[in-house]
Amino acid sequence: MSASSAPGSRITKAVIPAAGLGTRFLPATKATPKEMLPVVDKPAIQYVIEEAVTAGLSDILMITGRNKRPLEDHFDRNYELEEALRRKGDDARLDQVQASSELANIHYVRQGDPRGLGHAVLCAEEHVGEQPFAVLLGDDMMDPRDPLLTRMIDVQQRHGGSVVALMEVDRSQLHLYGCVAAAPNGDDDVVAVSGLVEKPRPADAPSNLAIIGRYVLDPRIFEVLRKTDPGRGGEIQLTDALQALAADPSLGGPVHGVVFRGRRYDTGDRADYLRAIVRLACEREDLGPDFRTWLRSYVQQEMPQGV
Ligand code: UTP
Q1: 19 CA from centroid of ligand 1 (Å)
Q2: What is the mean pLDDT of residues 227-235?
Q3: Helices (H), ranges, the chain
Q4: What is the CATH number of domain 13-268?
Protein backbone atom coordinates (compact mmCIF):
# COMPACT_ATOMS: atom_id res chain seq x y z
CA MET A 1 0.00 0.00 0.00
CA SER A 2 1.45 3.37 -0.89
CA ALA A 3 1.53 6.19 1.64
CA SER A 4 -0.96 8.99 1.15
CA SER A 5 -2.55 11.79 3.04
CA ALA A 6 -6.15 12.11 2.05
CA PRO A 7 -7.97 14.89 3.89
CA GLY A 8 -8.41 13.92 7.52
CA SER A 9 -5.40 11.56 8.03
CA ARG A 10 -4.33 12.24 11.62
CA ILE A 11 -1.09 14.17 12.20
CA THR A 12 0.91 13.32 15.30
CA LYS A 13 4.57 13.65 14.29
CA ALA A 14 6.86 16.62 13.92
CA VAL A 15 10.30 16.60 12.31
CA ILE A 16 12.82 19.26 13.33
CA PRO A 17 15.90 19.55 11.12
CA ALA A 18 18.78 20.91 13.17
CA ALA A 19 21.80 19.67 11.26
CA GLY A 20 22.74 22.78 9.31
CA LEU A 21 26.20 24.33 9.59
CA GLY A 22 24.96 27.67 10.95
CA THR A 23 27.66 29.60 9.11
CA ARG A 24 25.85 32.95 9.52
CA PHE A 25 26.42 32.71 13.26
CA LEU A 26 30.08 31.69 13.40
CA PRO A 27 32.11 31.58 15.56
CA ALA A 28 29.32 30.99 18.15
CA THR A 29 28.20 27.92 16.20
CA LYS A 30 31.64 26.38 15.82
CA ALA A 31 30.99 23.80 18.54
CA THR A 32 27.33 24.49 19.41
CA PRO A 33 24.31 24.04 17.13
CA LYS A 34 22.71 27.42 16.37
CA GLU A 35 19.42 25.98 17.65
CA MET A 36 20.96 25.91 21.14
CA LEU A 37 21.65 29.65 21.29
CA PRO A 38 19.61 31.12 24.15
CA VAL A 39 16.67 33.42 23.47
CA VAL A 40 16.42 35.13 26.87
CA ASP A 41 16.85 32.01 29.01
CA LYS A 42 15.73 29.10 26.85
CA PRO A 43 17.48 27.70 23.77
CA ALA A 44 15.73 28.65 20.53
CA ILE A 45 14.87 25.04 19.82
CA GLN A 46 12.84 24.71 23.03
CA TYR A 47 10.38 27.36 21.79
CA VAL A 48 10.04 25.38 18.56
CA ILE A 49 9.33 22.12 20.37
CA GLU A 50 6.83 23.88 22.63
CA GLU A 51 5.08 25.16 19.50
CA ALA A 52 4.82 21.61 18.10
CA VAL A 53 3.44 20.30 21.40
CA THR A 54 0.88 23.16 21.57
CA ALA A 55 -0.30 22.14 18.08
CA GLY A 56 -0.86 18.59 19.40
CA LEU A 57 2.35 16.99 18.06
CA SER A 58 4.17 15.24 20.86
CA ASP A 59 6.16 12.72 18.81
CA ILE A 60 9.21 14.69 17.73
CA LEU A 61 12.07 13.56 15.53
CA MET A 62 15.10 15.81 15.56
CA ILE A 63 17.57 15.58 12.67
CA THR A 64 20.97 16.27 14.15
CA GLY A 65 24.42 16.74 12.69
CA ARG A 66 27.81 17.26 14.19
CA ASN A 67 27.68 18.74 17.71
CA LYS A 68 24.42 16.98 18.51
CA ARG A 69 25.30 16.36 22.16
CA PRO A 70 24.07 19.71 23.58
CA LEU A 71 20.68 19.16 21.91
CA GLU A 72 20.27 15.67 23.32
CA ASP A 73 21.49 16.70 26.76
CA HIS A 74 19.12 19.65 26.96
CA PHE A 75 16.05 17.45 26.46
CA ASP A 76 17.34 14.67 28.74
CA ARG A 77 17.27 14.43 32.54
CA ASN A 78 20.21 15.93 34.44
CA TYR A 79 20.08 14.09 37.77
CA GLU A 80 23.11 15.80 39.32
CA LEU A 81 21.76 19.27 38.65
CA GLU A 82 18.26 18.30 39.77
CA GLU A 83 19.63 16.89 43.02
CA ALA A 84 21.68 20.05 43.67
CA LEU A 85 18.61 22.27 43.13
CA ARG A 86 16.50 20.00 45.33
CA ARG A 87 19.08 20.24 48.14
CA LYS A 88 18.96 24.05 47.85
CA GLY A 89 15.17 24.02 47.93
CA ASP A 90 15.13 25.89 44.56
CA ASP A 91 11.86 24.42 43.34
CA ALA A 92 11.22 27.01 40.63
CA ARG A 93 14.49 26.24 38.84
CA LEU A 94 14.07 22.53 39.45
CA ASP A 95 10.71 22.71 37.63
CA GLN A 96 12.31 24.55 34.71
CA VAL A 97 15.14 22.04 34.43
CA GLN A 98 12.72 19.10 34.51
CA ALA A 99 10.25 20.73 32.11
CA SER A 100 12.53 20.46 29.08
CA SER A 101 12.98 16.72 29.60
CA GLU A 102 9.24 16.14 29.97
CA LEU A 103 8.04 18.24 27.04
CA ALA A 104 7.60 15.55 24.43
CA ASN A 105 8.71 12.19 23.19
CA ILE A 106 11.90 13.19 21.37
CA HIS A 107 13.79 10.91 19.00
CA TYR A 108 17.00 11.63 17.13
CA VAL A 109 18.40 10.64 13.79
CA ARG A 110 21.73 11.65 12.38
CA GLN A 111 22.18 13.36 9.02
CA GLY A 112 25.69 12.24 8.11
CA ASP A 113 26.56 15.17 5.83
CA PRO A 114 24.57 18.40 5.67
CA ARG A 115 23.39 17.82 2.09
CA GLY A 116 20.46 20.22 2.34
CA LEU A 117 17.06 20.61 3.96
CA GLY A 118 15.44 18.15 1.53
CA HIS A 119 18.04 15.54 2.46
CA ALA A 120 17.49 16.25 6.18
CA VAL A 121 13.74 15.64 5.76
CA LEU A 122 14.45 12.43 3.85
CA CYS A 123 16.34 11.17 6.93
CA ALA A 124 12.95 11.15 8.73
CA GLU A 125 11.32 8.65 6.35
CA GLU A 126 11.57 5.57 8.51
CA HIS A 127 10.32 7.29 11.66
CA VAL A 128 7.45 9.10 9.95
CA GLY A 129 5.98 6.14 8.05
CA GLU A 130 2.77 6.77 6.13
CA GLN A 131 1.08 9.65 7.92
CA PRO A 132 1.29 13.32 7.02
CA PHE A 133 3.74 15.11 9.29
CA ALA A 134 4.90 18.58 10.24
CA VAL A 135 8.38 20.03 9.66
CA LEU A 136 9.52 22.90 11.88
CA LEU A 137 12.87 24.54 11.22
CA GLY A 138 14.78 24.69 14.47
CA ASP A 139 16.09 28.22 13.86
CA ASP A 140 12.76 29.78 12.89
CA MET A 141 10.69 31.04 15.82
CA MET A 142 7.02 31.98 15.69
CA ASP A 143 5.57 34.03 18.50
CA PRO A 144 3.52 31.63 20.66
CA ARG A 145 0.61 34.07 20.54
CA ASP A 146 0.32 33.78 16.76
CA PRO A 147 -0.64 30.15 16.14
CA LEU A 148 0.45 29.17 12.64
CA LEU A 149 1.01 25.43 12.83
CA THR A 150 -2.50 24.70 14.13
CA ARG A 151 -3.94 26.60 11.18
CA MET A 152 -1.68 24.72 8.73
CA ILE A 153 -2.80 21.38 10.18
CA ASP A 154 -6.46 22.46 9.74
CA VAL A 155 -5.80 23.34 6.10
CA GLN A 156 -4.01 20.03 5.48
CA GLN A 157 -6.88 18.13 7.08
CA ARG A 158 -9.34 19.91 4.79
CA HIS A 159 -7.44 19.66 1.48
CA GLY A 160 -4.96 16.75 1.95
CA GLY A 161 -1.56 17.00 0.25
CA SER A 162 1.04 19.42 1.61
CA VAL A 163 0.92 22.89 3.15
CA VAL A 164 3.71 25.50 3.31
CA ALA A 165 3.89 28.58 5.53
CA LEU A 166 4.20 31.85 3.64
CA MET A 167 4.95 35.44 4.56
CA GLU A 168 4.70 38.60 2.48
CA VAL A 169 8.20 40.09 2.26
CA ASP A 170 9.74 43.04 0.47
CA ARG A 171 10.79 41.99 -3.03
CA SER A 172 14.39 42.96 -2.25
CA GLN A 173 14.45 40.20 0.39
CA LEU A 174 13.05 37.37 -1.74
CA HIS A 175 16.48 36.09 -2.78
CA LEU A 176 16.91 34.90 0.83
CA TYR A 177 13.87 32.60 0.72
CA GLY A 178 11.95 30.11 -1.34
CA CYS A 179 9.13 31.86 -3.20
CA VAL A 180 5.77 30.65 -4.58
CA ALA A 181 3.39 31.26 -7.46
CA ALA A 182 -0.04 31.16 -5.86
CA ALA A 183 -3.70 31.97 -6.40
CA PRO A 184 -6.39 32.84 -3.82
CA ASN A 185 -8.35 29.90 -2.53
CA GLY A 186 -11.43 31.33 -0.88
CA ASP A 187 -10.02 31.89 2.62
CA ASP A 188 -8.27 35.15 3.36
CA ASP A 189 -5.08 33.40 4.54
CA VAL A 190 -4.98 30.32 2.25
CA VAL A 191 -3.61 30.10 -1.30
CA ALA A 192 -3.31 27.30 -3.84
CA VAL A 193 0.36 26.95 -4.80
CA SER A 194 1.16 26.25 -8.46
CA GLY A 195 4.94 26.69 -8.40
CA LEU A 196 7.90 27.10 -6.03
CA VAL A 197 11.41 28.41 -6.62
CA GLU A 198 14.33 28.48 -4.16
CA LYS A 199 16.04 31.83 -3.58
CA PRO A 200 14.99 33.47 -6.88
CA ARG A 201 16.57 36.56 -8.45
CA PRO A 202 14.13 39.49 -8.14
CA ALA A 203 13.26 39.26 -11.83
CA ASP A 204 12.40 35.55 -11.52
CA ALA A 205 10.31 35.80 -8.32
CA PRO A 206 6.72 34.77 -9.07
CA SER A 207 5.22 36.76 -6.14
CA ASN A 208 6.23 38.46 -2.90
CA LEU A 209 5.23 35.38 -0.87
CA ALA A 210 8.26 33.81 0.82
CA ILE A 211 8.33 30.31 2.30
CA ILE A 212 9.08 30.31 6.03
CA GLY A 213 10.09 27.45 8.30
CA ARG A 214 6.88 25.47 8.82
CA TYR A 215 5.53 22.71 6.58
CA VAL A 216 2.89 20.01 6.80
CA LEU A 217 3.83 17.34 4.30
CA ASP A 218 2.27 14.39 2.57
CA PRO A 219 4.47 11.30 3.17
CA ARG A 220 4.69 10.77 -0.59
CA ILE A 221 7.21 13.64 -0.52
CA PHE A 222 9.85 11.04 0.47
CA GLU A 223 9.48 9.29 -2.89
CA VAL A 224 9.91 12.64 -4.64
CA LEU A 225 12.88 13.66 -2.45
CA ARG A 226 14.68 10.45 -3.32
CA LYS A 227 14.55 11.49 -6.96
CA THR A 228 15.38 15.17 -6.36
CA ASP A 229 18.79 16.20 -7.68
CA PRO A 230 20.94 18.70 -5.81
CA GLY A 231 19.73 22.19 -6.67
CA ARG A 232 20.67 25.66 -5.48
CA GLY A 233 23.99 25.67 -3.58
CA GLY A 234 24.53 22.01 -4.55
CA GLU A 235 22.02 20.99 -1.82
CA ILE A 236 18.95 18.77 -2.06
CA GLN A 237 16.21 21.36 -1.69
CA LEU A 238 12.83 20.71 -0.07
CA THR A 239 11.49 23.52 -2.26
CA ASP A 240 12.42 21.56 -5.41
CA ALA A 241 10.55 18.47 -4.20
CA LEU A 242 7.49 20.60 -3.39
CA GLN A 243 7.75 22.13 -6.86
CA ALA A 244 7.51 18.61 -8.34
CA LEU A 245 4.34 18.01 -6.26
CA ALA A 246 2.81 21.35 -7.26
CA ALA A 247 3.52 20.63 -10.94
CA ASP A 248 1.98 17.14 -10.75
CA PRO A 249 -0.43 16.66 -7.81
CA SER A 250 -0.86 12.97 -8.78
CA LEU A 251 2.58 12.47 -7.17
CA GLY A 252 1.39 13.47 -3.70
CA GLY A 253 -1.66 15.71 -3.62
CA PRO A 254 -2.01 19.47 -3.96
CA VAL A 255 0.19 22.12 -2.32
CA HIS A 256 -1.45 24.92 -0.36
CA GLY A 257 0.02 27.88 1.48
CA VAL A 258 -1.04 29.57 4.70
CA VAL A 259 -0.09 33.26 4.75
CA PHE A 260 1.27 34.11 8.18
CA ARG A 261 0.86 37.68 9.38
CA GLY A 262 2.15 37.21 12.94
CA ARG A 263 5.52 37.73 14.60
CA ARG A 264 8.43 35.59 13.43
CA TYR A 265 12.16 35.58 14.15
CA ASP A 266 14.92 33.90 12.16
CA THR A 267 17.18 33.08 15.10
CA GLY A 268 19.89 31.89 12.67
CA ASP A 269 20.30 35.52 11.57
CA ARG A 270 22.20 37.74 14.00
CA ALA A 271 20.04 40.87 13.69
CA ASP A 272 16.76 38.96 13.93
CA TYR A 273 18.13 36.98 16.87
CA LEU A 274 18.82 40.23 18.74
CA ARG A 275 15.30 41.52 17.93
CA ALA A 276 13.78 38.32 19.30
CA ILE A 277 15.67 38.66 22.57
CA VAL A 278 14.80 42.33 23.08
CA ARG A 279 11.14 41.82 22.25
CA LEU A 280 10.65 38.69 24.35
CA ALA A 281 12.61 40.15 27.27
CA CYS A 282 10.46 43.31 27.20
CA GLU A 283 7.32 41.21 27.33
CA ARG A 284 8.41 38.93 30.18
CA GLU A 285 6.59 39.48 33.47
CA ASP A 286 9.70 38.81 35.56
CA LEU A 287 12.36 40.64 33.49
CA GLY A 288 10.24 43.02 31.43
CA PRO A 289 9.63 45.96 33.81
CA ASP A 290 13.32 46.50 34.68
CA PHE A 291 14.54 45.73 31.20
CA ARG A 292 12.09 48.17 29.57
CA THR A 293 13.15 50.93 31.96
CA TRP A 294 16.80 50.33 31.10
CA LEU A 295 16.05 50.13 27.36
CA ARG A 296 14.12 53.40 27.38
CA SER A 297 16.95 55.28 29.09
CA TYR A 298 19.56 53.60 26.88
CA VAL A 299 17.76 54.74 23.74
CA GLN A 300 17.23 58.26 25.13
CA GLN A 301 20.89 58.64 26.14
CA GLU A 302 22.62 56.86 23.28
CA MET A 303 20.27 57.76 20.45
CA PRO A 304 18.58 61.01 21.42
CA GLN A 305 18.07 62.01 17.76
CA GLY A 306 16.84 58.55 16.78
CA VAL A 307 19.00 56.02 14.95
P1 UTP B 1 19.76 27.07 6.66
O2 UTP B 1 19.43 27.35 5.26
O3 UTP B 1 19.50 28.14 7.67
O4 UTP B 1 21.29 26.61 6.68
O5 UTP B 1 18.96 25.76 7.07
P6 UTP B 1 22.32 26.46 7.86
O7 UTP B 1 23.50 25.75 7.29
O8 UTP B 1 21.74 25.81 9.07
O9 UTP B 1 22.69 27.96 8.29
P10 UTP B 1 23.61 29.04 7.61
O11 UTP B 1 22.83 29.60 6.46
O12 UTP B 1 24.89 28.36 7.19
O13 UTP B 1 23.87 30.06 8.69
C14 UTP B 1 17.58 25.77 7.35
C15 UTP B 1 17.26 24.68 8.34
O16 UTP B 1 17.55 23.40 7.80
C17 UTP B 1 18.45 22.70 8.63
C18 UTP B 1 19.14 23.75 9.47
O19 UTP B 1 19.58 23.22 10.70
C20 UTP B 1 18.04 24.79 9.64
O21 UTP B 1 17.16 24.44 10.68
N22 UTP B 1 19.37 21.94 7.76
C23 UTP B 1 19.94 22.53 6.67
C24 UTP B 1 19.64 20.62 8.03
O25 UTP B 1 19.14 20.05 9.03
N26 UTP B 1 20.47 19.92 7.20
C27 UTP B 1 21.04 20.49 6.11
O28 UTP B 1 21.78 19.79 5.37
C29 UTP B 1 20.77 21.84 5.84
Answers
A1: 6
A2: 93
A3: 44-54, 69-74, 79-88, 91-102, 117-122, 125-128, 149-159, 221-226, 238-247, 270-283, 288-302
A4: 3.90.550.10
